[in-house]
Write a structure and sequence with these properties.
With 397 residues, the protein is an alpha+beta fold. Helix content is 39%, strand content 24%.
Length: 397
């Protein structure tokens, strides 16, 4: 009996040890990525990036990457493949003109992050961010493209800056001519890259950007998209691009408009475009930040109120938070038509992508059956006479 107590004690210790070893460990976050590297000439600096965030009033949040003595290491989180653009505020990298700047992204470090990514960055600061990522096939492909086009884009920016300050008209035009020639070369290089890399998400995002900038349009865009590897369809960039391509197809003249049924409105009410059938409709893509959009509104308002028996306006705002729109409309109660909010990213409420809007303002005119009659990009005074003729023919002839 004298051996029982030690035996029980040993048993309990063993049991406790086993129970501790089998205790569930803390969950590991598999969405972690790391960016590290050295950019010669950066010294001590902060790089900033905008990350989409639906919980923020602006729709995004700002994150920073700290550089000390040219080097950095940063750990972050991503749930999928994301293109990140980190920008420096160093004046030497910004193509400044007067009180503004040329949007050349010469101060940007561009790379892709995704769960588990270990991104290595190397390069230097010249008169642009001559630094590129590696560490995986996606970033390697991005570097392959950007090493071709970044020097050209930087030269384009320099030529535009020179043209801005040049007093001699002949020399100014020469600068612009060189810049335009190089811009076409950049577009050709991008298309060549996409064509040769149909399996890469870099190609999808590059094409999405080109379509959004009207650098790739119509049937050429459709044909190139249809050659992309469908295995890329699970990426957000492919989904956005698909909406753009469908937008090209669905906004052809004579096409029946894709119906909009949404609560993405200024006050959260349900809106259904099909309820406007029987009347002419103007789909007006605008933003308070868009000078031409705002400057034509008085004329648009006057025309609408003179013809509201036969005409509806559906305003689709992009780029503004709700409060900014509300403040603007409070000052202009005469702009009393429905306001939809186009969201960013891969959502059903991204109306800009759905209708392939590439410039602001853009107006799409629908007949009472919901067919597209005309698409106006920018201000066009002939729009009103066109609608007048359509109303007269439809209702009174």
């Amino acid at each position: 009996m004298k051996f029982i107590k030690p035996f029980v004690s040993l048993f309990l210790i063993t049991l406790f040890t086993l129970s501790c070893s089998n205790k569930p460990s803390s969950p590991v976050n598999t969405n972690v990525f790391n960016i590290s590297g050295t950019i010669k000439g950066m010294g001590n600096d902060l790089l900033f990036t905008r990350i989409l965030d639906s919980t923020s009033k602006t729709g995004y949040r700002i994150d920073t990457l700290k550089i000390v003595n040219d080097s950095f290491s940063y750990t972050g989180f991503a749930s999928s493949v994301e293109k990140r653009e980190y920008y420096s505020k160093k004046e030497a990298l910004i193509k400044k003109v007067d009180r503004g700047w040329i949007p050349a992204k010469s101060n940007y470090l561009t790379l892709y992050v995704f769960p588990g990514a270990q991104v290595e960055v190397t390069g230097e600061v010249t008169n642009y961010m001559n630094a590129f990522p590696s560490g995986d096939i996606t970033n390697t492909k991005l570097t392959e493209l950007n090493k071709l086009i970044y020097p050209l884009i930087n030269t384009i920016a320099d030529k535009n800056v020179a043209a801005f300050y040049e007093k001699d008209t002949i020399v100014k035009n020469q600068h612009y001519k060189v810049a335009n020639t190089l811009a076409l070369q950049v577009q050709d290089l991008k298309i060549d890259f996409i064509t040769k890399n149909l399996n890469s998400v870099v190609s999808v995002e590059t094409m999405l950007d080109m379509v959004g900038r009207k650098q790739l349009e119509g049937e050429a865009a459709i044909a190139l998209f249809e050659n992309l590897n469908p295995q890329l369809s699970n990426t957000s960039y492919y989904k956005e691009l698909k909406k753009r391509i469908n937008g090209i197809k669905n906004t052809r003249i004579g096409q029946t408009v894709t119906n909009i049924k949404t609560t993405s409105t200024l006050y959260g009410d349900l809106f259904d475009l099909s309820t406007y059938k029987g009347q002419f409709v103007i789909l007006d893509f605008w933003g308070t930040w868009c000078g031409p959009c705002v400057s034509e509104m008085p004329e648009l308002s006057t025309y609408y109120h003179e013809n509201k028996q036969h005409l509806k306006i559906v305003a689709i705002n992009s780029g503004d938070i709700k409060q900014r729109i509300s403040d603007f409309l409070e000052k202009h109660p005469e702009y009393d038509w429905i306001q939809l909010l186009s969201e960013k990213g891969d959502t059903e409420s991204n109306f800009v992508n759905q209708f392939n809007v590439t410039n602001f303002p853009t107006k799409i005119i629908l007949n009472p059956q919901g067919k597209i009659l005309k698409k106006y990009v920018g201000y066009d005074k002939d729009m009103y006479s066109f609608i007048d003729n359509q109303i007269q023919t439809y209702y009174f002839n």
